[in-house]
Amino acid sequence: MGSRRSANWWTLWGVLILLWALFPLLWMVSLSFKDPATFRGSTPSFFPKEWTWKNYDTVFSDSLFTSALRNSAGIALIATGLSVIVAMFAAYAIARLDFPGKRLILTVALAIAMFPQAALVGPLFNMWRGLGIYDTWIGLIIPYLTFALPLSIWTMSAFFRQIPWEMEQAAQVDGATAWQAFRKVIVPLAAPGVFTTAILTFFFCWNEFLLAISLTSTDKARTVPAALSFFTGASQFESPITAIMAASVVVTIPIVILVLAFQRRIVAGLTTGAVKG
Amino acid sequence: MTATIEAAPPPVEAPRRPKYSERTAHERRLGLILSAPAFIVMVLITAYPLGYAVVMSTYRYRLTDPAGKEFVGLANYATVLTDPIWWSAFSTTAIITLVSVAIELVLGFGFAWVMYRIIRGRGFIRTGILIPYGIITVVSAYIWRYAFQLDSGFINQWFGLGDFNWFGERWSSLFVITFSEIWKTTPFISLLLLAGLVQVPNELLEAATVDGATSSQRLWKVVLPNMKAAIMVALLFRTLDAWRIFDNPFIMTAGANDTETLSFLAYRQNVTLVNLGAGSAVSVLLFFTVVLIAFVFIKGFKTDLSQVRGD
Amino acid sequence: MSAPTALGVRRRAVVLVMALAAPIALFGCGDGGESSGAAHLTWYINPDNGSQATLAKQCSEQSQGAFTIETQVLPNEADAQREQLVRRLAAQDDSIDLMSLDPPFVAEFANAGYLLPITNADDVAEFTDGVLDAPLETAYWDDKLVAPPFWANTQLLWYRKSVAQAAGVDPTAPDFTWDEMITAAEDQGKRIGVQGRRYEGYMVWINALVVSGGGQIVENVDQGANATPSMAGPAGDAAADIVGNLARSSAAPADLATAGEEEARSTFQSDQGSFMVNWPYVYSAAQESVTSGAIDQSVVDDIGWARYPAVASGQPSAPPLGGINLAIGNFTNHPDEALAAAKCITSLPSNVQYMVESGNPAARSAAYDDPEVRQAFPMADLIRDSIDSAGPRPITPYYGDVSTSVQRTWHPESSVRAPGTPEKTDTYMGEVLSGDRLL
Predict the structure, then answer these.
(1) CATH of the domain at C79
(2) How far apart are the C-alpha atoms of B188 and C118, rounded to whole Å?
(3) N or C: which end of chain A has fewer CB within 10 A?
(4) Does residue A131 lie within any of the structural domains?
(5) A262: Cβ–Cβ under 8 A, 6 or more apart, which residues?
């Protein structure tokens, strides 16, 4: 099998998949340039009949969106950072060490991941008002951390488990403590898992809608998904969809950059020889 | 209330390593210390709401009518379980979950494989595939809703469907919702599967090739078995997420034409109607269904992530 | 093995944790102290084009230091607005001083004790003198004034003059009925614009039909959860006939089951447009469509308006009622200032200004005589008459239940039949109200 030909073959598939993944984004961009008063009609078209920057003006003229961007970024980054660290420790312990209550933690983590969020809105709201953290960053970071941990722990446990035990044993035979073995051997090998978890957690926080809408009330802590439901058209009946699309385009650009950066890290993790002896 | 999958943690066997009993104690302590923060955070946040929901479900309580609060025991559960709305939401959720997860698994594996094997344009492809997952879910729902909608979208024109109202009937609405869900979350599965693929030891693959295995045999006998844990995590979490789908039906149909899902039902009862009694019963029941699913999965896969020393 | 990376990772982790701790400390703290002097009032508004914020500023200035009003915007959808307010009022939030409420919510909020009643007779007079009849009905609960009307809304019948002429009908005639309208559209091969999606707008339509027919959806509303559903009967049957016949006729738009106000306007402005029931905003929206080139000026010239169609010949219709009422939160720390602010916001000059700026009709009758208003709204008198004789939606604390049970049983339109559907609604609503069925 000619390696040049098969390389092209894979690239072709890649391009097709790319089209499938990105084509709706083209639609999103197209909608963002349509005039809000006229994008409906009996003969709608894919591309705008007339291109307009109106929606982008709307998005940036109001501090609603820019503050939401700031809140989303801050909350998602902090929650992701904390989640990765906390989950990494727990996952290592679960996959590598013997201690009582291990299964219980996994079970509890799973149970947390399964609980319907709609039921949490009321009680969490009451709790947060009592503690005075309603409508603050930390008021969202804590629930996000809670809901991101289960997946993080399970994902990283799976990763840690796949790493051959011999690695650590070799290090321990050489005299390292469990902590040193963790630091110098496991962490670099688990890098792909860590970054995978980080991406998934970040996207979870970025996308989260229900708690964002329920635990915030002003632009002090309102995130982008919640802010989108505050977008309005020229009248209360006019659909704000074109403005929402403009905001989405703006919000997607950093996502693309982020994914590009993280994707390289995963590749780097792979090529340092995760499983070479 | 707890939902334990196993009855109780089985007694942990301390490995017999006579020279290192200190090490064992140290290991156990370290294990507890490392996992304590995660455990504390998770329990602290969800214990109160969980308890609250269970207690509330035994009352008939409308938040805006505090005078009408009365204890009714399990009557709410009886109401919910005999209500056609609950069962309609149940079947809708089941259909969406089964179809989307099945398709996503196959599609996601295909994507993961491509991401794994591709050489030219690797960075672009890998980035591009992940982007749908980074789009805000409500935005994605809007994108697809306005694509399929009669007066603003292009689907009908491109496929020559004329006047067909996608959101006018149950099956077509479910199609659009499921399609949108698949587009959005396949990257999630493919990412997890890619990470699992990457960990399959190269030596095994090379050895299998040397032994004359075909690519199909390599796939089924070398690659997949070594990815078992990754597949299970991907499948489990994706199924749990799909079962609790909310954003897509909320934006696309608002539950019309029998497309309401269980999460949406819980939301409407708890948040919109502030009918906390019945709403809490719905939440608790929803929780039970999710527990059931997880139980089936874990038993089915027979993979214990907490096992330490090898298979 | 990669020693440098491991060390680097640990160092980075420590730095990361410390870096993260700082912002948490910063943003975790709540707001600092209050400024003394002018009372700071927060007015929670539904989204509009900024006119409420303008009013807020003006009234603050006019108060000469007594209070300042800050507007906080609520989500776009009425349901979402209610959800936000209910949760916070149930927690006795004292930061909610004024709120712009959708009229159907007033009963529920008042019954739950969330609204500050206005008891002083002079104040009541100031809020209610000269206000049109129907909006005034929605301002009271338990015989107390709880939410004075701010602005009001109603639907008109909009029609394409060319189509009406070709069909030989006069929509402005007092006894122009729904049946006539449907027949005319069918004859001309056109479509009728209505709101048929399963949402509150559909309830607006159904309620208007029932009340126009002389009936009520719910009776004995003071009984709370024991109110009597009363859809079954001649009025309910007439309404079901109209909805069902339209849905099954060729005049039904293809997206009837998912159409909202904008979709109806879209149909009306297209080649298939003939008749439409919709709020008055559509007129200025149509003019804007011309400026942005979506439709031709000839379409706008072809638009005529008339009173909401009647259900039965000889019985004047009860047009739908919308709008916004202004309420004072019961837990506010500044009840006197809030009251003064509310008086300013709902005064006649404010009404006029708001109507011209935002396009939303006024609740006070005298506003319609203002020359600026009459210039912006050629159909000002028709709007005033329609609002005055409008039929409000049921005023009950269980409005959510009532509305959703109606929406559920009447959707999709093609399944609506008389007498089956109204009877089904009554049964279902009764079970929901008594808690035996989920909604």
Answers:
(1) 3.40.190.10
(2) 56
(3) N
(4) yes
(5) A195, A198, A199
Q: Which domain holds residue A172?
A: 63-230
Angstrom distances, CA of residue B50 to CA of A107, B14, B288, C248: 15, 34, 12, 48
Give how many domains chain C has, as a whole number.
2
Identify whether the C-beta of residue B249 lies closer than 8 Å to the C-beta of residue B255: yes
- Which chain B residues have a beta carbon less than 8 Å from that of C438? 79-80, 83, 85-86, 265, 269, 278, 282
Provide the pLDDT for residue A270.
43
Distance of CA A160 to the CA centre of its chain: 22
- Quick check: is A271 in a domain? no
| Tokens coding C284 | 């200025």
Q: pLDDT tens, C251-292?
A: 999 889 888 898 899 899 999 999 999 999 888 888 888 887
Residue C62 lies in a domain: yes
Tokens 């980080």 correspond to A198
Is the four-CA dihedral C339, C324, C75, C402 of positive or negative sign?
positive
ipTM of the complex: 0.78
Q: What is the mean pLDDT of each run of 10 residues along chain C (439 residues)?
A: 45 50 43 60 89 92 91 84 87 90 93 93 92 93 94 94 92 91 93 91 95 92 85 93 94 89 90 93 85 85 94 92 94 93 94 89 93 90 93 91 92 90 93 84
Domain membership of residue C300 (yes or no) is yes
Is residue C32 in some structural domain? no
Nearest CA to CA, how far is A229 from chain C (Å)? 6
Q: Which of A100, A244, A267 shows the shortest C-beta gap to B139?
A: A244
Residue C158, SS3 per DSSP: strand
Contact A203 B134 (CB under 8 A): yes
Nearest by CB to residue C254, choosing from B163, B255, B256, is B163
